[in-house]
Amino acid sequence: MLTRRTLGLSTAAFALTVSLSGAAMAQKTVIEFWHGLPQPLGGQLEQVVKGFNDSQDKVQVNASFKGSYPETMQAAIAAFRAGNAPHVVQMFEVGTATMMAAGPAIKPVHELMKETGAALDPKAYIPAVAGYYASKDGKMMALPFNSSTSIMFYNKDLFAKAGLDPNKAPATWPELIAATKALKAAGVACPFTTSWPTWVQFEQLGAIHDTPFASQSNGFGGLNAELKINAPLYAKHIQMLVDLQKDGQFKYGGRDNKPDGLFPSGECAIIQGSSGLRSRIVKEATFAWGAAPLPYWPDQIKGEPKNGIIGGAAFWVMTSPKRTPAEYKAVSEFFTYLAQPGIDAKWHMDTGYVPVTFKGVEKAKAEGFYEKNPGADVPAAQLTRTPTTENTMGLRLGNLPEIRNIIQEELEKAFQGQQTVQQALDSSVQRGNVVLRNFERANKN
Amino acid sequence: MQRRVIFDNKLLPYLLLAPQVAVTLVFFIWPAAQAIWQSVHIQDAFGLRSEFVWFENFTAIFTDPNYVGTLRTTAIFSVSVTALSLSVSLLLASLADSKIKGAAVYKTLLIWPYALAPAVAAVLWMFIFNPEIGSLGRLLNGWGYNWDYRLNGDQALTMVILAASWKQVSYNFIFFLAGLQAIPRSVLEAASIDGAGPVRRFWSITFPLLSPTTFFLLVVDMVYAFCETFGTIHALTHGGPGKATETLIFRVYQDGVVNNDLGGSSAQSVLLMVILIVLTTIQFRFVERKVHYS
């Protein structure tokens, strides 16, 4: 009898719990969030989302991994076409122009924040970051989150072996050329390589030397931009790379981030690549290494080298026919949570991405992160060292991933000796402009 | 006398056919129709704006100087893959068909590669050919041969041809082996008694009797080389260096999925479809005449 009563009670209690949690579930607004970060970064991002879910009981954000950045973009586009877009999607920086041209498919963040009465101050963000994701009149179109920039890593042990000062990284290109010569003489098979050939050797080069990558302020001015990368600065720079490659002082390691592994393995003495490579180097390198800003050409520059531009991704709000105001409200709460300096600083320190807000930088400083991790401040310093100009805000070019591939293809033909550097650049401009015209045509209203 | 099945019910035959027709409609006719519709339109990535442009997407392809190069690469690639996978698998099947110790083990091992996903297979190839971490790549560079498929187009093309053929060898092997086992032993034995050597027996008896299998595999391999080698190329070279390993199917993917140019990509798939239809027709009209069906 006692047993039966207990059983009855516990059944009632169970039913009560179920109905209570059911009620709680019903109250929660569910937000779908698609991202393109593989492990371990994806897991770290999901931890941030979990932090938000645990911090309140109104909104449940479901983070799901949709493959690489281009795959995530494709998934989001396909979902939108099917009327089923996620609330929030993480989009890599080169997809920015495509997203901005998407018109009714996206909800600009400034609009979302205004409608839901939340505050988001664009001035809180580092200009090189905010500028990349801002509309022509300076309004935030997406929420910046994981931003990187490109810097240089060098192997201090190999520098010492070649008789170079391990505590002084080459600051200019002539210094870097001299260093690769010494490294080669010391028997290093790969003195220097570059990841992301287009991003680092074209886009960053242009920004640092305040030289346009494309007309119309790198595309910020309108869809009718044309590429400018056959200008003398680019020709001189790429000719230098081709010459170094012939002499065995530079090694072409492949497209995009394929060459990343050449540095932590000790194969290449110098690599220029994403600042995000840092976490991998920390984990894998068995030698002393240093980080430094990208070098510049003293004879191609007026005054100081300018700020570099960003890479990485931002969060975009997508629309769908069945979206409710409550869902937008929930998204804006999620964004407000993400925009806090504490979240920004923690993400930066955990992952090697740069802090996107000024307060985030200060917080990381205050916690003594840069004293414990020398060189970790290089990316942010390079991003903020000068005020942005029209050439250093970033790129706003349609189908930029395609243009990057075209440049890589033409570059490979130049490295193989199938064409001269000038031919490669002219051909990149010509083919790239076709892409830009097609984008302009498909997206004109 | 011929036996015929008579259906009393007029509806039943249609019902029995329906699943097959539905599958064909949903998975073949409908996507193909979509591709044709897309190929005469220019559209933005999100499908918000669409413009009917007649055959502009096609003229864009034909006026693109790079497309000729892609066609050339595809021709070299497809012919090489088909020839290589057919000849190697025929050789292996003939060897496995003879009376040797442990034939079952060889047969099983030779069939294995077919079960491997192209991406996984490509990673394995990378462990062989990568100049820094690949076993063969390191060896070649150690011998002073400058092996670097990231910058040498010919080396890259050779590598993807090898990788793509290897994958198809097991498939061909199964069919060839089955074909060989179906050849009556008595005919071969009679030829032996008449004094025909193994080479003569192969060319005069085995090869002609095997021709239905060979012909079937020729068609299948050609379609494979044109359409299903995408994964291998994607994982190994991404069409590079330059455009050295860019085949038609890889470019369809690149333009459609990566570059969001659905019109151009669809126009290319329509062209690819036409090329395959023409090739298959040629094969059936001219090559099939030489096939002996018993």
What does this structure look like?
The complex is a heterodimer of chains A (445) and B (294). The radius of gyration of chain A is 24 Å and the shape is globular. Chain A is 48% helix and 13% strand. Chain A contains 19 helices and nine strands. Chain A folds into two domains: 28-147 and 310-371, D-Maltodextrin-Binding Protein, domain 2; 150-309 and 390-443, 3-Layer(aba) Sandwich (D-Maltodextrin-Binding Protein, domain 2). Chain A has helices at residues 2-27, 41-55, 69-81, 96-100, 109-116, 127-132, 156-161, 173-185, 197-208, 215-218, 232-246, 278-284, 325-338, 341-351, 358-366, 369-372, 378-384, 400-415, 421-443, and strands at 29-35, 59-65, 88-92, 106-107, 143-155, 190-194, 268-274, 289-292, 310-318. In chain A, strands 1, 2, 3, 4, 5, 6, 7, 8 and 9 form a nine-stranded mixed β-sheet that branches. In chain A, α5 (109-116) packs across α13 and α9 (197-208) packs across α11 (232-246). The model of chain A is unreliable at 1-24 (pLDDT under 50). By secondary structure, chain A is α/β, with parallel strands linked by helices. By secondary structure, chain B is mostly helical. Chain B has one domain (71-290): Orthogonal Bundle (MetI-like fold), CATH 1.10.3720.10. Chain B has twelve helices and two strands, in the order αββααααααααααα. Chain B has a two-stranded antiparallel ribbon. In chain B, α9 (198-228) packs antiparallel against α12 (262-287). Chain B starts with 11 loop residues before the first helix and ends in a 7-residue tail after the last helix. Chain A binds chain B through residues 70, 74, 77, 80-81, 98, 101-105, 252-255, 258, 261-262, 265, 267, 399, 401-402, 405, 408-410, 412-413, 415-416, 418, 431, 435, 438, 441-443, 445, and chain B through 42-49, 51, 66, 132, 150-153, 238, 240-243, 254, 257-261, 264. Chain B: Residues 71-283 form the ABC transmembrane type-1 domain. Chain B: It is a multi-pass membrane protein. Chain B: The chain crosses the membrane at residues 12-33, 75-96, 108-128, 156-180, 201-226, 267-287. Chain B: The complex is composed of two ATP-binding proteins (UgpC), two transmembrane proteins (UgpA and UgpE) and a solute-binding protein (UgpB).
